[in-house]
Design brief:
The structure is a homodimer of 453-residue chains. Chain A has a domain of 252 residues: Rossmann fold (3-Layer(aba) Sandwich). The first copy, chain A, is 41% helix and 16% strand. Chain A contains 19 helices and 15 strands. In chain A, helix 9 packs antiparallel against helix 10, helix 12 packs across helix 13 and helix 16 crosses helix 17. Chain A is globular and about 60 Å long. The mean pLDDT of chain A is 94. Chains A and B meet through helix 3, helix 6, helix 8, helix 16 and helix 18 of A and helix 3, helix 6, helix 8, helix 16 and helix 18 of B.
């Protein structure tokens, strides 16, 4: 038997500030542009849908941004999250590598998402907002915001992609348990929803439509703001508690990572672990390779173009420079719904463009195989999204075995799969197929990218 | 905003020994009897289905039983579990009471069950057993044993009540992820299963039938033993890590409980928290009232008789003296499947008989209401079973409010409800009804109790 080790931290060591990588970048990230004017957007453009404190963070170049006390207090419900030395997995792989993972599944909603949901709920509450609107696909984000809303006394309205609303009743039940209102999208409650329903009465929805509905509701009601669960700078910022804690715990374990790994859909859990390590790397204090992992069927970073594009399919958002498959690219259905996004966080795209990180893509069945290996060794059943990071870590460990190297691997296990067990059933029954990447569809979508002067 | 507090312990403070209440009882519990001879059973009677180390613990009168190193090492995957001061819940209830709960949902399988599953897997492995058979109703126990089997390299065969097998695919997927074989019961694989299927081809199964199948398989195969998830002394013993840790954490919090609460189906999570406190109470070092909570529709302790009865409906087990509704009593279907048992652990029954503990019964809708209150305050969604303990704690806190007392309440939150969200959906949709207790059925079942000289 191996003896996996859990590194805990006292609550007094929850970070007191979020880390803003923008302060340390060798060149600043390209600004978001107004889709009408083509000029950089300012705070006023965002004010109808976000609270001022969040907008200030979105554009901040300060290195450290203090975590407000009530947010830190709330983090204490589950933070610091454990860092685990996965010795049982190492033994199962018979590798000389040391494998560590940071486990974010201990949060009440079961993933890293509450790190930002709680912060966003706090700032909105502070500015007198009564209600938050948002969209959710697989449901991880919607349930996290529902949880945060319950704690801070905010109503939460979640537009849930209709097919997920029907297929993921457990996630919906979780949102309702936290007191949120969950609405299948497209809905008759918004103009955007009604427009779709008129044309396509049987539409099963898309994240793009759900975003449009949630943004519309926030823009129209004075007491309502919009909250986003990934992609934007302030979201990535809030997630850096993951990496800051991990550094303290790695020091407790007397270990230094050679490889730092996270899965990336919108990019927030990856950035949360990776950005503090990029700071160390830029300062010459870390030798770690930093690897972002994406699904082979939605390969934004490995197959997409680094270009200005819309964040949504409805073209309501500003233009942001990012790795994108084109906003009209529709990824095939697969089980890691949280990674099913046509773009990537602009900051993650920027550091990839600068060569500070690497990107890798894996097919879903090989990721589930790695997830099952982890579950049988360490007991934790990963979310389908997180299984991509597990697969990359296993691959690095097997490389170490081939090369006879005892490198130290650190990955982010961003959430558990308790609400996604149907995916495991499909995997075991052989009903889970890898979807080949549709290159022709990519070419068509890239041809439609907006032209930016 | 309140500020709930998490009391963690270092892994070095995981208890080194389990506590055996039998050593401190004012009178010994009545022995189990052989159903044929009516005489106390001995180790030889149990040897075909349990390993010797487990049998020794079942009959031990030693106060402390050392936890083997590999079991303690495995506990480190999730133990020590947190103790939480639920200040947000206190504020929501506006009570002067202090509410603490021990949270066992952090285990990989999501409940307290792995505390004993890991120990049983270890002892079986040590004695050369290759395969464990067991039954499961709702699936908490089956998935915990599947997890333990994966860690110790044992095959696990779970006979799952057919109706649960069909209605709880997520629990089944979890067992399969851990590598266990999950068989709907009644099955054609055993004589007991075939006998039922011949008479009732459409049988949806029962825990009684599933026990018969699992025991039969263990008795017939040399390389296979049987594992039970509650009721027996050794199971309760393994759960005392909960109470031992809680005491250290309550000391860290500078708090002493006035009331200690656990839900009780078979009795093991209740005993795990309560028995160490009973030791302190018997020694005059604690003033705590100790309360076991059961469902009003299966009220073993509050409506049953303290008498010798069979542990299963098939009458394969020894006769044990316990609070029972009669082994032929069929509890109505309700959502806390883990509390749907006609009897109660003999040791729990004994201390209730001795007046050392109190028993209370609650209907399921009031328990769900309390569970939702906890979820919205503390973020954790309780398992339907655990919601009974939440309800009792809320009730005590409201009594303190009425009486103007700032008592300290400690309850065991034995598991999360991630795999039981359908129950919450039913609760919110109003489809969850309280089933009135069937007193006539109780009278009929009690009339059939075995006659013991």
């Amino acid at each position: 038997m191996g003896d996996s080790v859990k590194y805990l931290l006292g609550e007094d060591r929850i970070p007191k500030a979020w880390y803003n990588l923008v302060a340390d970048l060798p060149e600043p990230p390209p600004p978001p542009l107004h889709p009408g004017t083509g000029k950089p957007i300012g705070p006023d453009d965002l004010a109808p849908i976000f609270p001022m404190a969040v907008i200030a963070q979105e554009v901040s170049t300060e290195r450290w941004i203090e975590i407000p006390d009530p947010v830190r207090e709330t983090y204490r419900l589950w933070r610091p999250s454990p860092l685990i030395r996965a010795r049982r997995l190492e033994q199962a792989l018979d590798t000389p590598a040391k494998i560590f993972f940071k486990y974010e599944g201990v949060s009440p909603a079961g993933s890293h998402k509450p790190n930002t949901a709680v912060a966003q709920a706090f700032y909105n509450k502070q500015e007198g907002v009564k209600r938050l609107s948002t969209e959710t696909g697989a449901g991880q984000w919607g349930s996290s915001l529902a949880f945060a809303g319950a704690l801070f006394g905010l109503e939460v309205e979640v537009y849930m992609v209709k097919v997920s609303y029907q297929q993921k009743p457990y996630r919906r039940a979780l949102m309702e348990t936290y007191g949120a209102r969950c609405i299948p999208s497209p809905s008759p409650l918004t103009a955007s929803g009604r427009a779709i329903l008129e044309k396509f009465p049987d539409s099963t929805g898309s994240l793009g439509i759900a975003i449009s509905e949630a943004v519309e509701v926030a823009a129209q009601r004075d007491d309502t703001k919009y909250a986003l669960g990934s992609v934007l700078n302030h979201v990535l910022l809030h997630q850096t508690v993951i990496g800051e804690e991990a550094m303290l715990q790695m020091a407790d374990a007397d270990a230094e990572p050679d490889v730092v790994i996270g899965c990336a859909g919108g990019g927030s859990n990856f950035a949360g672990l990776a950005f503090p390590y990029l700071r160390e790397k830029l300062a010459g204090r870390s030798r770690a390779r930093v690897v972002a992992v994406e699904p082979a069927s939605c390969p934004t970073m490995t197959q997409g173009r680094y270009a200005y594009d819309f964040g949504d399919t409805g073209h309501l958002t500003p233009l942001v420079k990012m790795h994108t498959l084109g906003s009209s690219f529709v990824p095939p259905g697969f089980h890691a719904g949280g990674l099913r996004y046509h773009g990537m966080a602009p900051l993650v795209s920027h550091v990839l463009h600068l060569g500070l990180i690497e990107a890798k893509a894996y097919a879903q069945t090989e990721c589930f195989a790695a997830a099952v290996q982890l579950a049988r060794a360490e007991g934790i059943v990963p979310a389908p999204e997180s299984s991509h990071a597990v697969k990359a870590a296993v691959d690095e460990a097997l490389r170490c075995k081939r090369e006879g190297k005892s490198e130290t691997i650190l990955f982010n296990l961003s959430g558990h799969g308790h609400f996604d067990m149907q995916a495991y059933t499909d995997y075991f029954s052989g009903n889970l197929k890898d979807v080949p990447f549709d290159r022709a569809a990519l070419e068509r979508a890239l041809a439609e990218l907006p032209v930016v002067a």
